[in-house]
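JOB MANIFEST
job_type = single_chain_structure
chain_count = 1
residues = 125
[input]
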Amino acid sequence: MTDKVEVKGGCHCSTIRFTAVVPQQVKTLLCNCSMCKVTNYEHLIVPHENFVLESGKDNLSSYQFGTKKAEHLFCKTCGVKSFYQPRSHPHAFSIHVATLDHAGLLDISSEHFDGQNWEQAKSKL
């Protein structure tokens, strides 16, 4: 069994702050969809029960497009998307690894996901 660690993170201006419990060894996803590609978003999937939004709920702005199943959440002040609700994992949030305070605590391996062809690629998740 992999050891669990508590990680903290948030947006650039620190209005949005979260805590999550994740395995010390994690696999992240690097997606090439239209949204992730332009932000170089690295997905760390965390079940809802292992994620706590500590501050900034009222400062989140929501953006949806396409199927409207994903809810992209941005800080209204600095514009950073530190986490969001992906359509691929309806019972989990996706944290952007770059927004973690100390990502070096994690042993991260990444794999590419073909989000440009989501319908065909989703079975690989």
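[summary]
DSSP finds two helices and ten strands in the chain.
Residues 4-124 form a domain with the Metal Binding Protein, Guanine Nucleotide Exchange Factor; Chain A fold (CATH 2.170.150.70).
exit_status = 0
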